[in-house]
Amino acid sequence: MTARLLMSASAITRDRDGWLAQRRTGLTASEIAEVLDVSRHGTPFSLFAAKQSGDDGRKDTAAMSAGRHLEPVVADLFEATHPELDLLDGGLYCHEDREWQMCTFDRLAIDAQVNPGARLSLVNSLPTMRLPDRTVMPVQIKTSATQRPGHDPRYWWGDAGTDQVPLDYRAQALYEMDIATADAVLLPCLFMDTWKVATYVIERTSDVDNDIWLMREMAQGFLIRLTRDDPPPIDWRPETTAALRTMHPDISDREARITKELADRYKAAKWAQAAAAERVGLYTNQILAAMGDAEHAVFKSYRGRESALVASRRHFSRKYIDVDLLRAKYPHIARECERSSDVDALYASRWARPGK
Question: What are phi and psi of 185, to 5 degrees?
Fold first, then answer.
């Protein structure tokens, strides 16, 4: 391992602000997925805006907080099932030659066997991986509600012992592999639906080396954009919308000129959105008419060669607070419960709205 230690794990715990400041001087493993535009939590543009403003600390969510608190638990469970490994504290490291390339290892694993040819034994009895003597491997600890969170299969976990991990975690793991010049990265993940830890292994192969090379090139290109104040292209995602609003929190009483081409595209999109909503409503009503009192709508092709559940009808009672009644009968309670929040939205003019 040729990576250089910048801050120890204990120093990070004592000085989180110092850790964040140190990270801002480079590009970290937790940010590389945004550079590659495979992150679930950010985009190239939102990362660019955060780096330029110096405010690149992600807002702490309940899931992130839970993951941090569970990290030592997962590490203990992982270590208990892998006596062939010595588990060491991580810390903030950079690559020996590329100081801008940084990561915070959760842990570092070293094979405890002094003899070469030791094997990493996986609890799921899949084929084990042979380790060179005293191999150092980054350990990236994860937690997940389930093996298949969300609807996008790119972010699903595969079978334990394989290298099938969510795409953004794979990018993070390869970045850490590059910094540590490691032969493998271990990803123990606690699935909270079963409360079991499964270990995933990404080994260095020629394909992995090609991915690392491409990742490194894109990271350097992103850093060049930062030095030139050349933002990445605008995309559709909400994280970019939030970044744009953060960049310009105040509204001044002036006009901004945009191209006729952009205006026409915006208008066409608003009209297409309205037309799509009408089509969804039409097909919804047609399906309801075809279903009658049935609970499920399915289709089956000729001789049942293809079939699918299309939609299901649900009928239930939903409770809610009648705000108008509350204000009429208990105005003082309504006033005490009233809250306000900032709204920053783009409203289409009559020229752009459908039917105008």
Answer: -125, 140
Domains and CATH numbers, the chain: 4-239 (3.90.320.10), 260-292+318-337 (no CATH)
In sequence order, what DSSP letters do the residues of 252-276 get, joined into one string?
-S------HHHHHHHHHHHHHHHHH
Q: How far is CA 184 from CA 130, 137, 152, 161, 246, in A?
A: 11, 6, 26, 12, 39
As a whole number of angstroms, the distance between CA 71 and CA 37 comes to 26
The amino acid present at 185, given as its one-letter code, is V
Instruction: Please write the tens of the pLDDT for every residue from 251-279.
Output: 999 999 999 999 999 999 999 999 999 99
End-to-end, the C-alpha distance of the chain in Å comes to 65
- In degrees and rounded to multiples of 5, residue 280 shows phi and psi of -60, -45
pLDDT of residue 112: 72
The 8-class DSSP code of residue 104 comes to E
How many CB atoms neighbour CB 149 within 10 A? 14
d(CA 33, CA 47): 10
pLDDT digits (tens, 9 = 90+) for 282-307: 999 999 999 999 999 999 876 667 88
Q: Is the pLDDT of residue 114 over 60?
A: no
- By C-alpha distance, which of 193, 64, 194, 62 is closest to 141? 64
Is residue 222 over pLDDT 70? yes
Phi and psi for 13 in degrees, rounded to 5?
A: -60, -40
Quote the CA–CA distance of 103 and 175 in Å, as a whole number. 8
Structure tokens at 37: 């535009």
Say what the pLDDT of residue 64 is. 72
Q: Are 133 and 84 in contact (CB under 8 A)?
A: no
At residue 242, does pLDDT exceed 70? Answer: yes
pLDDT confidence band for 352 (50 / 70 / 90)? very high
**What pLDDT score was predicted for residue 124?**
41
* Cα–Cα nearest to 19, from 103, 88, 121: 103
Q: Classify each residue of 73-102 as buried b or exposed e, where b means 16 or more C-beta atoms within 10 Å of its C-beta.
A: ebbebbbeebeebebeebbbbbbeeeeebb
Cα separation, 188 vs 214, whole angstroms: 26
